[in-house]
Amino acid sequence: MIPNDQVMKTAAGASTSSTPPAQSGWSRGVLPALRKEDFDRASKLLINVSIAAEALWANRLRSLLTTLGVFIGVASVVSMVSLIQGISANWTDTIASLGTNMIIIAPGTGNNLSNTGLSKNGGVSVSSRVTSALPAGEVTLSLTPDDATAITKLANVTEVSPILSVRSQVVFGNLNWNTRVAGVSASLQDIQNWTVVQGDWFSAADERGALPVAVLGQTVYLQLFAASGADPIGKDVRVGSQIFRVVGVLATKGGASSADDVIFVPFSTAMQRLKNSTYVDQILLKVDDTDNIDTVQGAVTSLLEKRHHIASGTADDFNLTSSKQLLQTFDQILSLVTALYLSIASISLTVGGVGIMNIMIVSVTERTREIGVRLSLGAQRQDIRNQFLIEAITLSLIGGVIGMVFGLLLGFVLTTRLAIPFIITPASLLMPFAVSAGVGVLFGLYPAVRAAQLDPIEALRSL
């Protein structure tokens, strides 16, 4: 029995003490004391994230299957972006390596497939178009060496080179290689920015004397000389039935895969020894400034129309394509392909979003009791909404992350097979998160709002 005065002292001490009494054992075990931090927005968000994670883990197989639509859509977008960036970089490097101020004059009317630098299988090879022979019957040859000479006199034209090309078997010792042999002027080195790593480019004197000298592209050098380790400078190679002396080896050009698979010889030598023709396959010229390309194209067109006696209103028997036009044409094609592919990927993302919405509506129906209990215990409707919205976003983000990894792997495989650069940018890494989060919010908002608007009394009746 506790004395009354002791009870009074204890009560008085409790009333004056600043330290709250310790909780009893039963109260601590049943309901822990609430803290101020539990009502912070950040703490409530963490609690909602935890509840959402538990709900998704409880139905992990269903959750994983739900993310398939987002996974496929994101993987398609990421792989396509990687492929497009690689193709764009390859094309830009190819044009830059061939000369940014270059104009290609080809025989025939219009810019048909053979004159654009796009091969029939979809490959990009401007350099092969510039230095290869035209297929038989493709166009009627109309350009002559005299046309090239006349073009050199035009204003703003700094360099001109006619092109005469054949395909031939090249032999050195017991090794042989089938490649393109292009008869060009000495000025082609400057027009196309070729770099010589061994020896020298042939001179204008070599061209005037029609000397049998040759400059090897890197691919030809690797096929005929690299294995034996022999120094190619001064060695004789047989091109068809003709003997040529190697005077130089070119650095790797890059860009198109066939850019380095070529042998350059003096134009006059090619006309006498390889292809006795009064016509040339192409004419290349360099303009002094990019701003003057359109002016020079107009001047060249007028000059050739006059030389070829083409009446006004009649189709020309030649066509001009500048490096600037090649880039613009390719950008247009690439934009069209990108829009088409992204529209297909967006369909997959939409299907994935509808799947997430469907599963979240089912989840709201299954967890009516949980919603009713939480609302009756004081949970706010925005907490219920945020919980289900977080679940939808989490599902979408999981699909986005898996899709990003798979898309990067697929992009790497595709670019490797096509021998083009594999490029990863911050945008390609952030885009999957932005897209998947957007899909989660867009398609998860309705189920989340629906869950938050449930009447707690009606929800508790399901208990």
How does this structure look, described?
The structure is a single chain. This protein has 463 residues and is an alpha+beta fold. The chain contains 17 helices and 10 strands. A 6-stranded mixed beta barrel has the order 2-3-8-5-7-6. Strand 2 and strand 3 (175-184) form a beta hairpin. Helix 3 (41-58) packs across helix 15 (381-417), helix 5 packs antiparallel against helix 13 and helix 13 (323-366) packs antiparallel against helix 15. Mean pLDDT is 78; it is low at 1-31 and 111-138.
Shape: elongated
Give the amount of beta strand, in percent: 5-15%
Q: How much is the average pLDDT?
A: 78
Strand order of the largest sheet: 2-3-8-5-7-6
What order do the SSEs take from the amino end to the carboxyl end, as H and E?
Answer: HHHHHEHHEEHEHEHEEEHEHEHHHHH
Distance between the termini: 47 Å
Broad structural category: alpha+beta
Count of DSSP H/I helices:
17
Q: Please describe the biggest sheet, giving its number of strands, its sense, and whether it closes into a barrel.
A: 6 strands, mixed, barrel
Total strand segments: 10
CA radius of gyration: 37 Å
